[in-house]
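Section 5: illustrative case.
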C-alpha cells in the first residue's frame, strides 16, 4: 500500500488500471452508479436477510451502498489488496463493518463453499480476465439454487477503432474482447443452470475534456495523494488523465446492461414457445 510518505514504487507510465485504482483509491462505481444499485435491489429483491457476494469489489462502492440501501450482508472480494484495504475503511466509515466484509481473493478460484450466497454481483470485472469461463463457473457454483447472478457488463454497440481496443487492452491488462449485448447474453447463458429473467440497457452520458480534468482534480485532492512529492503527483495526474480520456472515448462506442439470471435446478426441457417484449398493436 502506498502511504503518504512512501515513494511510488515502479514506473507509473505502464501501471495497469487495476493496480492504479488501488494506488489512488478511486471509489470505482458500477456503470450507472447508485441508480444501478437501486434498480438491482428492487428487481433482484435484495433485503435485510440476503447474503450477497461481489466479485471485483474494488474500493467497496457497490458492496457498501447495496448494504446501506437494503441491510443485506455482503462479502466483497478483489484481487488487489490495496483496494480491499480501502473498501474496509469505506465500510467502517459507514459503521457497517459487521455486515460488509472484504477479502483478497481471485474470482477465478474462490475459497467459498458451493451454494452459499443468495446473489452474486459481477460488474466490470469479467472483462479483466482472459479466462472468463473460469470466473463464470465460480459465480454459478457459489450462488444458491433460486438465487440471482447480477451482471452489469459494458457492451459494444459499435466496433471501436483498433487503437482504442489496443489501448484499453493494455489498460486492463488483458486483451479486450469487443462483446456485443448478444455476446454477453450468450456468455452468461452458457452456464447450464443460469436463466436470464431481467435485463435493462443504457448508454453513457459522455463528458467533455473539462469534466475529465475536474474529476482528476478531485481525485488528486485526496489526502494521501496531496501529501506526495510534486514529481510523483504529476506522474499520477498524467496517468489518471490518460485513463479517464481513454475510457471516455471507449464508452462512446458502448452501453451497459443490467442482467439478472436465476440459478435453476436444471433445464430439463427446452422451451418451445419463447417470447420477447413487443409494442402493442392498434387492435390489442
Ligand atoms: C473496473 S474495477 C470494477 C469495480 C466494480 N466492480 C465496478 O463495477 O465498478 C475492476 C476490479 O476487478 C478487480 N479484479 C481484476 N481481476 C480480478 C480477479 N481475477 N479476481 C477478483 N478481482 C479482480 C480489480 O482489482 C478491480 O478492482
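Designed sequence:
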Amino acid at each position: 500500500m502506498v502511504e503518504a510518505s512512501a515513494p511510488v514504487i515502479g514506473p507509473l507510465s505502464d501501471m495497469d488500471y487495476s493496480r492504479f485504482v488501488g494506488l489512488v483509491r478511486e471509489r470505482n462505481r458500477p456503470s450507472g452508479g447508485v441508480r444501478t444499485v437501486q434498480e438491482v435491489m428492487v428487481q433482484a429483491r435484495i433485503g435485510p436477510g440476503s447474503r450477497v457476494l461481489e466479485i471485483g469489489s474494488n474500493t467497496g462502492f457497490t458492496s457498501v451502498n447495496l448494504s446501506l440501501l437494503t441491510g443485506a450482508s455482503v462479502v466483497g472480494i478483489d484481487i488487489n489488496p490495496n483496494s480491499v484495504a480501502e473498501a474496509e475503511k469505506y465500510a467502517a466509515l459507514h459503521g457497517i463493518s459487521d455486515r460488509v466484509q472484504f477479502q483478497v481473493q481471485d474470482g477465478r478460484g474462490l475459497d467459498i463453499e458451493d451454494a452459499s450466497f443468495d446473489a452474486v454481483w459481477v460488474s466490470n470485472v469479467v472483462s479483466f480476465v482472459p479466462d472468463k469461463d473460469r470466473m463464470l463457473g465460480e459465480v454459478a457454483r457459489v450462488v444458491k439454487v433460486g438465487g440471482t447472478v447480477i451482471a452489469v457488463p459494458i457492451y459494444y454497440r459499435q466496433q471501436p477503432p483498433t487503437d482504442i481496443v489496443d489501448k484499453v487492452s493494455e489498460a486492463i491488462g488483458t486483451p479486450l474482447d469487443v462483446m456485443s449485448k448478444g455476446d454477453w447474453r450468450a456468455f452468461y447463458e452458457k452456464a447450464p443452470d443460469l436463466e436470464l429473467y431481467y435485463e435493462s440497457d443504457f448508454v453513457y452520458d459522455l463528458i467533455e475534456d473539462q469534466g475529465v480534468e475536474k474529476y482528476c482534480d478531485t481525485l488528486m485532492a485526496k489526502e494521501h495523494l496531496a501529501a506526495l512529492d510534486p514529481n510523483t503527483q504529476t506522474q499520477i495526474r498524467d496517468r489518471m488523465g490518460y485513463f479517464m480520456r481513454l475510457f471516455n472515448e471507449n464508452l462512446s462506442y458502448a452501453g451497459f446492461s443490467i442482467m439478472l439470471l436465476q440459478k435453476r435446478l436444471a433445464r430439463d426441457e427446452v422451451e418451445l414457445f419463447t417470447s420477447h417484449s413487443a409494442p402493442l398493436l392498434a387492435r390489442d
